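Notes continue from the previous slide.

Worked example: a multi-chain complex. Inputs as given:
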Amino acid sequence: MCRWMAWLGQQVLIDELLFQTEHGIVDQSLHARMGAEPTNGDGFGLGWYGADGARPEPCVYRSVAPAWSDANLRELAAHIESPLFMAHIRAAIGSPVQETNCHPFRHGRWLLVHNGYLADFRALRRDLMLAVDPALFPLVEGSTDTEVVFALALTLGLQDDPIAALERAVGLIEQTARSGGHETLVQATFGISDGTCLWAVRYATEGRARSLFASSDVAAIRQLHPDNPRFARLSPDDRLIVSEPFSDLPGVWREIPQGTAVTIRRGGVIEERSFRPQSIPLASGAAR
Amino acid sequence: MCRWMAWLGQQVLIDELLFQTEHGIVDQSLHARMGAEPTNGDGFGLGWYGADGARPEPCVYRSVAPAWSDANLRELAAHIESPLFMAHIRAAIGSPVQETNCHPFRHGRWLLVHNGYLADFRALRRDLMLAVDPALFPLVEGSTDTEVVFALALTLGLQDDPIAALERAVGLIEQTARSGGHETLVQATFGISDGTCLWAVRYATEGRARSLFASSDVAAIRQLHPDNPRFARLSPDDRLIVSEPFSDLPGVWREIPQGTAVTIRRGGVIEERSFRPQSIPLASGAAR
Amino acid sequence: MCRWMAWLGQQVLIDELLFQTEHGIVDQSLHARMGAEPTNGDGFGLGWYGADGARPEPCVYRSVAPAWSDANLRELAAHIESPLFMAHIRAAIGSPVQETNCHPFRHGRWLLVHNGYLADFRALRRDLMLAVDPALFPLVEGSTDTEVVFALALTLGLQDDPIAALERAVGLIEQTARSGGHETLVQATFGISDGTCLWAVRYATEGRARSLFASSDVAAIRQLHPDNPRFARLSPDDRLIVSEPFSDLPGVWREIPQGTAVTIRRGGVIEERSFRPQSIPLASGAAR
Amino acid sequence: MCRWMAWLGQQVLIDELLFQTEHGIVDQSLHARMGAEPTNGDGFGLGWYGADGARPEPCVYRSVAPAWSDANLRELAAHIESPLFMAHIRAAIGSPVQETNCHPFRHGRWLLVHNGYLADFRALRRDLMLAVDPALFPLVEGSTDTEVVFALALTLGLQDDPIAALERAVGLIEQTARSGGHETLVQATFGISDGTCLWAVRYATEGRARSLFASSDVAAIRQLHPDNPRFARLSPDDRLIVSEPFSDLPGVWREIPQGTAVTIRRGGVIEERSFRPQSIPLASGAAR
């Protein structure tokens, strides 16, 4: 179990959303309410894009310390502004607590975070790694399932169409599990960005997927809570995606339906479509 | 808030009490039930004495990682046996997460662990440090209230009579707080050892003290649970002191009353007396 | 032994001076040439001021990892620009490797770094801590001599006149050592900033002080090395202070004489005066 | 570059060989003399076997801190005795500093340490991982070349004949490199143990192999240095293998010739034979 959040909108001090929020992501590292586990203390990561586009690659800060106790995270959050960033808090399930297992994972301008797991991952790992583009193989530095999903999605076209690539990656994983007689279950919410857009996916092969929410339309939020000074500062461009809501205020958060992919573009534009894993012939993947 | 445990008895593999127990101390690092906070993930420490007495000083392993995720703790626990050891899991309240703030604290053959806090400690710190024996002053390496309490108790005779020294230390702290117009509250359970005995204290200046339990007489435990293979291996010498019980089995744990000091000697001997802070003239302490 | 550097000038990507330099500070963490020890691997710190002055307090990133292997330092350096920053690499001499012992130390807008040591510091620590303003006492979180020097300098007027305050602090330390019969030796280069100016001091009670260099006048550097593209980018406002030169190019670095305090203001202005510790009555210090 | 040491002999306090030695392994972490680099500060590991054989699996303590500054290593070394242990200090060349990249690597009762590297490892990694027994594939948790060599040797019979298995593993690596058009160079000293014997290998595909030394016969050492109290305590059973000698005393150390495998058995028995990589058909390895 993990939790994550992503912001796309006006340039904000990261602190405002990480620490100066009622039930923000750092608070969730100690007290998650909707996850399988309340504690997400096995490291964290923060990836942010600059405002000016001078450097298209995001900066990533990852640490094995729990987010709640990391002095550097407080420092950085209190001094760095960004119009687009993602934060992730980790609850390791079996794999070691090390920076190379912390999200977000990065490739060039791309960031990916994940909440969930692949069932029977240890049994699947070899076959999935074989399906990774050999040029990407040596870039896998850690031992999480997420990093392998990211490498598969990159192999299958993430940089052209991130949702389609994830549909292929998840399809390939399910097919690999099924054909190997393993438990077939991808449990996932994903967050992805290239510095211009945000993509979010909520999906489970079966059963209930991990929770995922998008912030509502700013105009609607303001109408519901006209006296909230925080909301007064929101602009129509601002959008948040979160594993679980930061507050209990009604009308502020909208649950993203299961089996759904969401695309958020600058200007507050949000598009939804269904997320359907695509079967691709395993051999061709493995042969690349 | 923190949690701790101490074992005095037959030589056991540390693993049995740290990991192979239903609701042991490592489990409590994620899911404490009786503490102010369920999570105690801000480092931990383990101090153990050898069996043979060849080295009277205990070995101490401390880490800033949460106990639940530290691979080395699992390793050491699975390979090291000891007839007398203490483990502590930390929930920092304000002070940094660093090894020098992890319990147990050691001085020569002595170990001390603490669950609780001194109210207004930052305001008291200077006056309390002045009351520490100047020879001990430079040995205070961290920034916790506990380390200062330990230094005070060492100043006030811990090595001759640990309970009396703690009564003087707590008395001095309460008096310092009172005379400075600060909130006067010592919240504490303490565990102390010199490699031969265990001492445990449960005390609060006012209100309810942190929880503390001693294991019951082994004969009684066995009579209550005749079919439990774990209890069958206990010897009459074995005693555990814990912040909170490892299991819900009736009759296995006995709550230590508030305002009480307990002494456990080899052979399972357990003695109880009341714990009463002693006022000592502050000037004399400060003048040393 | 430690090494440090400070930049005041045009806004630069920190990476340029930390990593993209021939014998920069990170390289010095593995291969210092002029220090007592070649290795400075006991943690590091980076403190930087923002460009716009929106946040006058500097951001500080400190880590116990060696600078050469810290992935986050590479990330941050490659993404953060600053017109004024200080970096420090640490070689611990006895005190623990923990973030609270890493430089720079900060108080409000002020940063301080130090290379050197106080002889017999453990024996002096109590008396020096007594001379610290009681309001500052609880802010001392680590166990280094440097943090105590900083607290003393703050007590003695750092925020009004940093060099004069350091002269008083060093005078007080020397006097305390002398009157206690201890070895009397302050070995120090200091770097200080408030976000507008840089101050640097090179001093030793006796013997040779640690090395310290300032970059030469930009015009002079360019005349000497007209074809160097790096120097072509320098502006007349740019000044560097370093424990040891980044390169062996002649004329680029000027050794700061022993017993000297240097003030650098925006615009490349550099002023020098002698640094003379001031004796102040110890009692008054202790009584504050 | 790394350095390692291994002890097989009488039960000793680990401290004696790690810290209480003139130019021991911890000193080498700061000041190696014979390596490519003087600093080996990117983590370390210690693996030791118990005396009694009650637990055949060794205990492993690994840390990302430099060996010279790790407080826990000092503690453990000062309290733990062992008749057979290995210590390794790491100088990372490109791969992350994380515990899963620290030596020794363990599988069941087996430990392996390595000094050296595989040229072009990133390019080879995928093909080598394919040659690993699929059942072992998910056990590779880190990203070093050494862990892959260990997995290959386990695949190729390490538990039956460690030297022969290493000859096959190195042969397979060289062949894979050659057939892929990569630089073909295995640079290695290896240390291996199963708790009863020690095996050591010194090999380089071409050029000079990393240094490796065995302690001389105890009788000979004593005759050369009759007044040395340390040597007086040695028993005829004691043998040390080290990357570089602990002292400059003549006659104490014997260089292991390049292309050599050494087997040390209890009783001080030392056997030498040449180490010759074996070509094995790559397909069969990959097909397992």
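Summary box: Residues 284-288 of chain A have pLDDT under 50 and may be disordered. Residues 1 and 37 of chain A are 7 Å apart (CA to CA).
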